[in-house]
Amino acid sequence: MQVKIDKCMEVVKKDDEIISPAARVPYYPLVIKRGHGAIIEDIDGNEYIDLLSSAAALNTGHAHPEVVKAIKEQINDFIHYTPAYMYHQPLVQLANKLIEITPGDFKKRVAFGLSGSDANDGMIKLARAYTGRSKIISFIQSYHGSTYGAISLSALSLNMRRKIGPLVPDIYHIPYPDCYRCAFGQKRESCNMECLKQLEIAFEYYLPAEEVAAVIMEPIAGDAGLVMPPQKYMDKLYGICKENDILFVSEEVQQGFGRTGKWFGIEHFGIVPDAIIMGKSIASGMPMSAIVAREEIMQAWEAPAHLFTMGGNPVSCRAALATIDIIRKENLLEHAHKLGEYVEHRFNQMKEKYELIGDVRGIGLSIGVDLVTDRATREKAKEAAAKICYRCWEKGIILTFFANSVLRIQPPLIITREQIDKALDIIEEAIKEYLAGDIPDEVLRVAKGW
Ligand SMILES: Cc1ncc(COP(=O)(O)O)c(C=O)c1O
């Protein structure tokens, strides 16, 4: 249990008074003082094991010494000069590395930005510029960020769309293939991919395929609750794109940079996308995003169609170069894969004991644990998710939930087996305490979540 959070509460109170409410999804009053590896310390001196990695943005962990060293070195040389006008080496070095680690044995180019959101916006522009077509296909329950283009691609929450329209036009949303909660009531064994038929219906009646520029898809739907599409869906969708000269874009802002045990989530499906959107963990916490696309696609737009004064910042570039080195040197892809299998196994053991756990899914260290009030109806157990996360925080674990009911297990990839074991034991304790009615309703006033 927490001993003392007085200093944290003071900051949270002040924050509540002066920070925009549109910028926070509250879980609990954790005010961070420092972080190292997979451990966070708050300003009252309490320590936590981090299972969130700053929303999957710190795959190499907090303040990795190699990242810190690279940042310090770069700051000593120069902090920034806009690549819009002048050149710098770290930008070119990083672009080369990104081209190297992305799937596809063809010529590529890179466009840099500052956030996953702006990269999504960039992709809309680029796909339109290259194809000369305006329409974009995205997915229901997807989250792509907070700029106008990214919000328009997203379909996760009415709150992010309310009152701010009109949004970017010509974006169409189709159902993501969610085999646990199939919107069409199908069973995995007998599924005939009714969800993909929705696209065929659209192409037949109201959405001319020859006007569609791109499908922008997360290879695992993160904020939808880490939903994994089946291989046959991916093969068929990719085939439809190729038949109709539609670009297939993998949105890897959350799943990229080793999170799933491969550099990019789409590699699990053996699909080579025309472009990849990346952000979050690319620079281990420094602001940066990138689009990596086929050479001929990237040649379709001209300056200043997508440039940012602060984009491609050399400090972020150096942090990103260090990030790629660390992932390689420390074998983090393999570690994420192996540890991920272990975590899934542990949750599956818990699933056998607790009816509350409806589904355990994901890949690598991107694992969702879906809580239900009833296994037959699969009704989401939002209160349970909120209470369990809150209790875990009280016991020293940073755990959050999304899609109302899904515990989000995305620790830094450098987390050790001992740390993850401790975290899993505490999650199990919290589940038991929830089932025993030991977590008071008042925590629901704080732990709102997605
Ligand atoms: C899949 C995905 N795309 C895009 C974004 C937006 O990234 P950013 O918040 O860096 O703009 C997020 C952020 O949560 C995300 O999860």
Plain-language structure description:
It is a single chain. Strand 15 (400-402) and strand 16 form a beta hairpin. It is globular, with a radius of gyration of 22 Å. The strands form three sheets. It has a seven-stranded mixed beta sheet with strand order 4-10-9-8-7-5-6, sandwiched between helices. The protein has helices at 6-18, 53-56, 65-77, 89-101, 116-131, 148-153, 194-205, 231-243, 295-298, 314-329, 332-353, 382-394, 417-435; strands at residues 32-36, 39-42, 47-50, 108-113, 135-139, 171-174, 212-217, 247-251, 275-278, 289-294, 357-363, 366-374, 379-380, 397-398, 400-402, 406-409. The chain contains 13 helices and 16 strands. With 450 residues, the protein is an alpha/beta fold. Helix 12 (382-394) packs across helix 13. The protein has two domains: 6-63 and 331-445, Aspartate Aminotransferase, domain 1; 66-329, Type I PLP-dependent aspartate aminotransferase-like (Major domain) (Aspartate Aminotransferase, domain 2, 3-Layer(aba) Sandwich), CATH 3.40.640. The structure holds pyridoxal-5'-phosphate.
Spell out the blueprint of helices and strands.
Blueprint: H1 6-18, E1 32-36, E2 39-42, E3 47-50, H2 53-56, H3 65-77, H4 89-101, E4 108-113, H5 116-131, E5 135-139, H6 148-153, E6 171-174, H7 194-205, E7 212-217, H8 231-243, E8 247-251, E9 275-278, E10 289-294, H9 295-298, H10 314-329, H11 332-353, E11 357-363, E12 366-374, E13 379-380, H12 382-394, E14 397-398, E15 400-402, E16 406-409, H13 417-435
Parallel strand pairs: 3-14, 5-6, 5-7, 7-8, 8-9
Antiparallel strand pairs: 1-2, 2-3, 4-10, 9-10, 11-12, 12-13, 12-16, 15-16
Helix pairs in contact: 3-10, 4-10, 11-13, 12-13
Pyridoxal-5'-phosphate is lined by residues 55, 115-117, 120, 143-146, 218, 222-223, 251, 253-254, 279-280.
